[in-house]
Amino acid sequence: MIRLYGHSMLVVNGELVIDPHDGGSIGLPPPEIERVKYVLITHDHYDHNAYQGLLSEEVKMGLEGEFAFDGYKVRATKVNHDREGGKRRGKTSMYEIKYEGITLLHMGDVGEIPRESILKSFSPDVLAIPVGGLVTIDGKEAAELVKILNPDIVIPLHYWVKGLLLPLDPPDQFLHEINYQQIKGKEIDENNLKKYIFLL
């Protein structure tokens, strides 16, 4: 089960959180979760790294390489947070997480379409991808990546919603480009679903 908490924050099976935010600093409601086992952070920016508000056993940030814990196999790949080789915003990690027969790819704040050699190494069932532009790829680029990676479930990340204090684009362009059925809700059962986009 994947639960959405807005912006780039996901929680897998109630125990693994990716890119936690605190709500208030970005204009969203505070996440209704206090305790998790593990925290993965794609990069050390304030809208992704609010782990201090969570009780957790382990926090990992900005990783590269492979590791495993409690049935989760994680492969971390560093990519650029901008189109200038990381000179403006540094690097962000993409996390491929395998668990219970599912492969989730969280693309962090990827700022450009990664090299073909990187993309060919991924085959996600669930793709969490930024679509709001400005500091990440935009909706059109995100749609291109969805077509390349061909996941069953897409979770748009890092886009403007009412109240958000960051000047990002809404997901409209991305949704227009992708021919997936749209579902609104906070929880995703990632089994036996094909070609769905989940939005809060």
From TrEMBL:
Protein name: Zn-dependent hydrolase of beta-lactamase fold
SUPFAM superfamilies: Metallo-hydrolase/oxidoreductase
Entries under Pfam families matching the protein: Lactamase_B_3 (PF13483)
Signal peptide: none
